Automatic annotation (TrEMBL):
InterPro entries to which the protein is assigned, alphabetical: SH3_Tf2-1
Organism of origin: Tanacetum cinerariifolium
GO molecular function, one term: RNA-directed DNA polymerase activity
Entry keyword set: Nucleotidyltransferase, RNA-directed DNA polymerase, Transferase
Domain Tf2-1-like SH3-like: 3-52
Protein name stated in the entry: Putative reverse transcriptase domain-containing protein
Amino acid sequence: VVRFGKKGKLAPRFVRPFEIIEKVGRVAYRLDLPEELNGVHDTFHVSNLKKCLVDPTLQVPLDEIRVNANLNFLEEPMEILEREFKKLNGVELPSLK
């Protein structure tokens, strides 16, 4: 199962192995997810699945995963790191990083 909430290159990509209940269509599978993940849809495209995790240390414990009830992600800026002005058609526009 692909990441739930952590962003970035170093975020864990897979949680743990789950049993496949049935094949849905040509490229999707329904998984048997535990009650802790009841807010997550149980049908996944094959590109989001991996056959097996051999190394258990790579698995993310389910208690670290938090699924918000409304499943929305809000990202709030902490500070403005850099400000530039770019010219576009003779008008200077601020660009923030």
